[in-house]
Amino acid sequence: MNAQRVIAELRELASRTGTADGAQRLAWGPVWRDAREWFRGKVAELGLRVDTDAAGNNWVTLPGTSPKTVIVGSHLDSVPNGGWLDGALGVMAALEALRMHVATQPPVTLKLVDWADEEGARFGRSLLGSAAAAGSLKIDDVRELKDRQGTRLVDALAENGVVLDQMLDAHRALKTIDAGAYLELHIEQGPVLESMQKSTGVVLGTFGVERHMLRFTGQAAHSGSTPIPMRRDAFLAAAQTALECREIAKRHSKPGAGVVCTVGIVNVEPKIVTAVPGVCEISLDQRALDPHVLAAMLRDAHDASDRAARDNNVAVEWRDLWKINPRPFDPALVQLCEDAVREETGEAPRLPSGPLHDAAEMVPHMPVVMMFAYSSNGLSHCKEEDTPREHLERTICAFLRLVQKTVQHVAHNEERKGREGRKETTGL
Amino acid sequence: MNAQRVIAELRELASRTGTADGAQRLAWGPVWRDAREWFRGKVAELGLRVDTDAAGNNWVTLPGTSPKTVIVGSHLDSVPNGGWLDGALGVMAALEALRMHVATQPPVTLKLVDWADEEGARFGRSLLGSAAAAGSLKIDDVRELKDRQGTRLVDALAENGVVLDQMLDAHRALKTIDAGAYLELHIEQGPVLESMQKSTGVVLGTFGVERHMLRFTGQAAHSGSTPIPMRRDAFLAAAQTALECREIAKRHSKPGAGVVCTVGIVNVEPKIVTAVPGVCEISLDQRALDPHVLAAMLRDAHDASDRAARDNNVAVEWRDLWKINPRPFDPALVQLCEDAVREETGEAPRLPSGPLHDAAEMVPHMPVVMMFAYSSNGLSHCKEEDTPREHLERTICAFLRLVQKTVQHVAHNEERKGREGRKETTGL
């Protein structure tokens, strides 16, 4: 268990595939391919090899006594001008986990996975490789995607040996794995651990998201000649709704089960200094880990927008943008993760993940847990992204400890099942 | 006194210089020139002539017994796709006022003025001709103005015989007029008279305006990973300020002395659905007729924005856009206007003017009053602009009555001054 080595390799990868502006491992591009080539060399040093599935995900298998498998992974791709740890931390820690077990055959099989195109930074579809492996990718949804230069996703995939219409073969491949656990280490990309001054967090699951556009329609009017009581100001209705939605989120937050809500897009029309806005459109992004809480937040937001519309004599229409159900992680693995983090760092703060991760795609298929590392200033997707060295070392150690515990846990479950199976046979 | 004739001439002008999309008398363009040519013909029928001053304003003089002068006017130019009454109503009613007096020499001189480029629709500087006549125009402020096609104001003026650097000669010309009153009839361009079901309103003055941009700066953050208590949401600070400014305006409004306040522009950054806005800019346009009230509203808005910034852990900066002092009209003329409106329509609602008008430019130079006509649905600057016929007739009659009263009033003042002057002379 060598956290220093993991950090050294992360530095090596950063200097090889980054610039002064940050990491440049954009999925399907030459720098990303170079990063994977470098990684292939690291894997070869362990006497192992990289296999690529039909969706471009890279797998490394360390066979154990049992075919029962613990999967450990993350992604090597980055956004343009990205951070050195986002994704790469999880992959390099996973490699160290394999190294720890390569000398002696482990009781269960270990697989490392480097998911392809987690970020979706070029074509706008994140979790592309893991969604294909999970079988949740709708090929037709991405068939026409192009990047800003007009290059088609299908052509970028082909350049990397991936055939769009065969990507779901990765799902068939995943189903052949007898998976007992999926573990992923990631930088938090948020300010929670930093605010608590904790190195490492136990992730409870990924938030469910309800994302909508709300369009308020009143009447544009001259800012000088229209008395306030006669106005139908669409912006003020939207402003009232946005403030009320924050109160709704506060009301539904409980200690350790915070929820969030964000108005990120605001558009007013006619957008001139001398006109009362006749139209205002806002995006509303609500997130919670508990599906019942998320549903209640959405109902409350509907009520708030109706009330604001009434108060301002305007109309409001909702339009769905996107939704995803919460993906709570496996309670037994969350407990193992908590034990590992506590043993390494003394305490084990639990937090939900706001951003999605490849781990979320694995939830329907196997027990999953994630661990988060402290994120300086909560910054990610930028060159400033960092985890201070002492927090990083501790977190890597905690994660490797989690892998060991999980291997033991899965092996133990297998043994018990085996004993029960033998008992049943004996009983016949 | 023939309101029907005024309406018939307005219809004639509309059909000559409008399209199915509305009035097209854009200042300095061919349709506007054609409208003025048509008007010149109407003036010639009275045996009078049009004189153009150095700013392109057209004047018609009907000499009276005294050189003391009552000026009556408005503007023939319109916005593109504008209304048939905005501006033209005041000019055609002024022409009827001259007609009323042309048969017999009036006791005071009457002047009609058709101001050039009230709308500023092409070059963005409204009240151009009246500001030049008032001496408030800063030539250097408009020297570099261009329209959307890149044509320079200076060239558009030259096409119409106006030399930019000589425009202020119009001010010297105005100062030679011994003006006792300026009267202007205009369509309200707002919903107040309609809401009271009144044909005609007495205008108390034009609002003072305080116009600012407020820039709230917080910190952009991921909408999923940033707990609400840790956010620095610039939009929510702006939303809170906007709602609070409306309350401030309500608090400062008194019956018959309403004030207004409008947030018309809203810009958020980075303006993506998954990011807490790190920056939000809003315009704030506050208007009141009482300068003390306007100053108090501005102070309260500053306090509100500071409080909202504090509450949301963001910074706020104010940037001046524009201001103009309130221009209250002359109390004696307001009283005459009230009498005229009451005699014609039974009641005389008083209201401030939210939009500016050429009349505002005359306030520092002579006693001024305006009269407003009912505006259907409060709409203006569009082809739907209208005053229903019965309201229009009554309003024109009230205005012509106001001209008569003002002529008598100014003549009477002159006589009294004459008598007092003679007494003084006798006393010596």
The quaternary state of the protein chains shown equals homodimer
How many DSSP E strands of chain A? 18
Give the helix tally of chain A: 13
Strand fraction of chain A equals 15-25%
Please give the radius of gyration of chain A in angstroms: 24 Å
Major sheet of chain A: 9 strands, mixed
CATH superfamily name of the largest domain in chain A?
Answer: Zn peptidases
Report, as a whole number of angstroms, the end-to-end distance of chain A: 46 Å
Backbone structural class of chain A? alpha+beta
What general form of chain A does the structure show? globular
Estimate the mean pLDDT confidence of chain A: 95
Can you tell me the CATH topology of the largest domain in chain A?
Aminopeptidase
Low-pLDDT runs of chain A: none
- Give helix % range of chain A: 40-55%
Please characterize this protein's 3D structure:
2 copies of one chain form a homodimer. Chain A has 428 residues and is an alpha+beta fold. Chain A folds into 2 domains: 299 residues, Zn peptidases (Aminopeptidase); 116 residues, 2-Layer Sandwich (Alpha-Beta Plaits), CATH 3.30.70. In chain A, the strands form 4 sheets. In chain A, strands 3, 4, 5, 6, 7, 8, 16, 17 and 18 form a 9-stranded mixed β-sheet that branches. In chain A, strands 9, 11, 12, 14 and 15 form a 5-stranded antiparallel β-sheet that branches. In chain A, a hairpin with a 2-residue loop joins strand 1 and strand 2. In chain A, helix 1 packs across helix 13, helix 4 crosses helix 7 and helix 9 packs antiparallel against helix 10. Chain A is globular and about 85 Å long. The relative contact order of chain A is 0.16. The model of chain A has no long low-confidence stretch (mean pLDDT 95). Chains A and B meet through strand 10, helix 9, strand 11, strand 12 and strand 13 of A and strand 10, helix 9, strand 11, strand 12 and strand 13 of B.
